Amino acid sequence: MTAPDRHAALAATRALPGIPVDQDGPVFREPWEAHAFAMAVTLHARGLFTWPEWAAALAEEISRAQEAGDADCGDTYYRHWLATLERLVAEKGVTTPAHLARYRDAWDHAADRTPHGKPIELRPEDFGG
User: Fold this and answer.
1) How far apart are CA 61 and CA 11, in angstroms?
2) What is the three-state SS of the chain?
3) Average model confidence (pLDDT) across the chain
């Protein structure tokens, strides 16, 4: 992680209690969690939302998930993070829910054809008709 990235990540962990951390900063179980975290930090740095706005949206997403039966054991934290990110970028007009769904479906298609351990690459045919 570069120095500016590390600084932004540490600022996020201070502003948003609940982020899984160790002595070096945020902790991720899978690469996609780090990517989701980095996207949110970047969008915050570009002024799309404030940390208080993000924290309120994330808390709302976690509450909804708990009401729907999420046991809140910590293993779904970044799933809530990603859902919050998707909701905020749609609410802010950066993209639409339909566009997000189109890419999610394409990603699933690409993942299905990709051998385990290989990088997933989107191709035009992943987007279907």
Assistant:
1) 22
2) CCHHHHHHHHHHHHHCCCCCEECCEECCCCHHHHHHHHHHHHHHHCCCCCHHHHHHHHHHHHHHHHHCCCCCCCCCHHHHHHHHHHHHHHHCCCCCHHHHHHHHHHHHHHHHHCCCCCCCCCCHHHHCC
3) 86
Q: Residue 64's Cα: distance from chain center in Å?
A: 17
Task: Give the total number of structural domains in the chain.
Answer: 1
Cβ contact 92:46 at 8 Å: no
In a domain, 85, yes or no: yes
Q: What is the pLDDT of residues 35-60, one digit of tens each?
A: 899 999 999 999 999 999 999 999 99
- Under a CB-based contact definition with an 8 Å cutoff, are residues 83 and 41 in contact? no
Instruction: Look at residue 125 and tell me if it is in a domain.
Output: no
Answer whether 51's CB lies under 8 Å from 12's CB: yes
